[in-house]
Amino acid sequence: MKCENQMVLEFPSKSINESFARAAAACFAAQLDPTLDELGDIKTAVSEAVTNAIVHGYPDTIGTITLRCRILAGNVLDIVVRDKGRGIENVEQALQPMFTTGGAERSGMGFTIMESFMNELKVTSRPGRGTTVHMKRKIQKRGGQS
Predict the structure, then answer these.
(1) If DSSP codes are grouped into helix, strand and coil, which group holds residue 123?
(2) Which of 50, 87, 97, 112 would disulfide-bridge 21, Cβ 3.0–4.6 Å?
(3) Which residues make Cβ contacts (< 8 Å) with residue 105, sequence separation at least 6?
(4) What residue ranges define each of the domains in the chain, with the CATH number in brackets?
(5) Among residues 13, 34, 15, 14, which one has the least CA distance to residue 25?
């Protein structure tokens, strides 16, 4: 698909940067004129992806997280969150609701939330090499036209 606009951010895997990433993605998405509900869904999905990278990708160290947002033809917002952390041993298992490696304080619902708020979710990972979360969301044009 043709890319109409894009942005890339890199930031340290510090929890204070989660809100920065979600705000940056929402500001970028604003050019598609989304509804407040659509913006809320985008912000939540980005927040979950970045939080996963911080908590699970770099549990004992500070690493780099990359956020890429693109506008594709047809009013599609394409978002990629990538880390080069410890990776996921079993992606299929990690995508199951309530599965977590983060202890009792984690709900295990991050990927489920991302999947419910976006039209597409793809997770790729290699142990010791990192994880990439790729999400797409079609933004409805105002007036019911898409």
Answers:
(1) strand
(2) 50
(3) none
(4) 3-139 (3.30.565.10)
(5) 34
Six token digits for residue 138: 């079609």
Q: Is-catalytic flag, 48? A: yes
Choosing from 4, 68, 75, 106, which is the catalytic residue? 106
Q: Is the dihedral of CA 38, 101, 11, 77 positive or negative?
A: negative
**Half-sphere CA count of 109, side-chain side, radius 13 A:** 7
Cβ atoms of residues 121 and 59 within 8 Å: no
Task: Verify whether residue 105 is a known catalytic residue.
Answer: no
Q: Residue 146 pLDDT more than 60?
A: no
Catalytic-role residue among 18, 48, 70, 86: 48
Output the six-digit token pair for 47.
């927040």
Could you read off the pLDDT of 54-90 as tens digits, one per residue? 999 999 999 999 999 999 999 999 999 999 999 988 7
- The tokens describing 48, both together, are 């979950």
